[in-house]
Amino acid sequence: MKKLKNPGTYGNHFDIETGEEYWVSGVKKNGQDRHWCGGGKVMIDRNSIDEYFKLVDFNYLDEKYFTVIEFSKTDKNRFNDIENTEVELMNDSRSAMYWDNNKRKLSSI
């Protein structure tokens, strides 16, 4: 996951493999970490719960609002390879657009 340079309404981070956008919230003391237009439960990694409780004003996770998940280990080298793949020129017009390897627009000339 990588932070978007220009966050939108639907996401402030994206998956570098799929391009799918996600909203990653800062921690709120009252536990209302959900994006204002989002729905569903807030996902929290099992290994982060103790640190989360140090930042909020409560000491248990209400199952109505939170889902505990477990992130799998990632291969940092795989992400490094993806990030360092050359950009691709998508067309030959005078106003060419450059896209990254996830088909996300980088710039126009």
Write up this protein:
The protein is globular. The chain is 14% helix and 21% strand. It has a three-stranded antiparallel sheet with strand order 1-2-3, with no helix packed on it. A three-stranded antiparallel sheet has the order 6-7-8, with no helix packed on it. A two-stranded parallel sheet has the order 4-5. The mean pLDDT is 77. It contains two helices and eight strands; from the N terminus they run ββββαβαβββ. By secondary structure, it is an alpha+beta fold. The chain has helices spanning 49-55, 76-83, and strands spanning 2-3, 13-14, 21-22, 42-45, 66-69, 88-89, 97-99, 105-108. It starts with a strand and ends with a strand.
Sheet/helix structural class: alpha+beta
Shape verdict: globular
Proportion of residues in extended strands: 15-25%
- Write down how many β-strands occur, each being a DSSP E stretch of 2 or more residues: 8
Q: What composes the largest sheet?
A: 3 strands, antiparallel
| N-to-C order of helices and strands | EEEEHEHEEE
Q: What average pLDDT do the residues reach?
A: 77
